[in-house]
Amino acid sequence: MMSAISAGSDEIAATPGAFRQRWDVFLSFRGSDTREGITKGLYEALEARGVRVFMDDVALERGEEIQRGLMEGIEDSAAFIVVLSENYASSHWCLEELAMICETRKLVIPVFYRVDPRDVRHQSGPFKTNFELHERKYGESVVQSWKKAFKKIGGLSGWPVNHTQVCP
């Protein structure tokens, strides 16, 4: 099926997949917390259903600059699944990623893995100390953008997961 848009004598033809992004879903997660558990299960379940998933250790090419590769992955993804775990905020990489994800205005689905969405929203509980440490190291203005992203993601309807099984 082909569609055309006419503007006077100019005609633009496009196939349905012409504007498709490289990745359907970008997985954001704290590797040491969830890579071998829930995140791996999500990745495998989505891939088995034909979803093109960006996961850092699979999608990044060897020798590629990690930060640039992650940023390109974010830009070229249609939606995001953010697995928020107890140590997610300990990583400035995760927080940078989350801030960029929140700026895209694309679909974001949070998975609250063994954390309370209220603690995410208010940067309390297991996240409070991490934000205080980051503020001392990176400064208040940098951390404010991370807090804003955390507040936004904590305010989204998502899935609380309090066990390790993801998909049968």
Automatic annotation (TrEMBL):
GO annotation, biological process? signal transduction
Q: Which UniProt keywords apply?
A: NAD
The domain of life is Eukaryota
NAD is among the record's keywords: yes
Its protein name is TIR domain-containing protein
**What is this organism's lineage?**
Eukaryota, Viridiplantae, Streptophyta, Embryophyta, Tracheophyta
Q: Which residues cross the membrane?
A: none
Q: Does the keyword Nucleotide-binding apply?
A: no
InterPro entries under this entry? Answer: TIR_dom, Toll_tir_struct_dom_sf
- Domain TIR span(s) in chain numbering: 21-168
